[in-house]
């Protein structure tokens, strides 16, 4: 019977092998937990950076064609010194709209019947517009941009609803998210805007 008990007991080699297996399992768990923790921290930092400093936005609609197309992804830089020609993102009726800065506070805007835009009496050179159009417009010209506001228009002038209508009007600076700086998607069009 004593012999029977000894056969059931593990040998020294078996004990060493089992201890090695348990240590490996413990080390593997630590590695997995460490990796997952690191990924969570990196993801949290990425979300914070994108929310606070560089929001990523998806283009919806065609008001900015041919510059931006539906379903493209762009990065927006939060800053406050905008200039004519910048593309900006802003809040309007619980939506985010993307338009181009045409007039700054105090500028006088005039739009001819053929869609030619004049700012402070000078024709605005707009290489980003394929086809000039008067579009939907119900404001009186010449129009002066109020203080702390920005006059914006879409690049697809015939379909864009923008500062030319009183329902959108000029954009207050506190509603502006930032300036569009980079296109992320699609891959073939990736680059600085």
Which labels suit this protein?
rod-shaped, alpha+beta, eight-stranded antiparallel beta sheet, 193 residues
How do the helices and strands follow one another from N- to C-terminus?
HHEEEEEEEEEEEE
How many separate helices? 2
Average pLDDT figure: 88
- Major β-sheet annotation: 8 strands, antiparallel
What Rg do the Cα atoms give?
30 Å
Q: What class do helices, strands and sheet pairing give?
A: alpha+beta
Q: Helical amount among residues, as a percent range?
A: 10-25%
Shape: rod-shaped
Low-pLDDT stretches are none
Number of strands: 12
Relative strand content:
25-35%
Task: Report the end-to-end length measured between terminal Cα atoms.
Answer: 86 Å
Give a written overview of the molecule.
The chain is an alpha+beta fold. The chain has 2 helices and 12 strands; from the N terminus they run H-H-E-E-E-E-E-E-E-E-E-E-E-E. The protein has helices at residues 2-8, 12-52, and strands at 56-58, 73-77, 87-92, 95-103, 108-111, 117-119, 122-123, 143-144, 149-153, 171-172, 176-185, 191-192. The strands form 2 sheets. Strands 1, 2, 3, 4, 9, 10, 11 and 12 form an 8-stranded antiparallel sheet that branches. The chain has a 4-stranded antiparallel sheet with strand order 7-6-5-8, with no helix packed on it. The longest helix is centred in the N-terminal third of the chain and has 41 residues, at 12-52. It is rod-shaped and about 105 Å long. The model has no long low-confidence stretch (mean pLDDT 88).
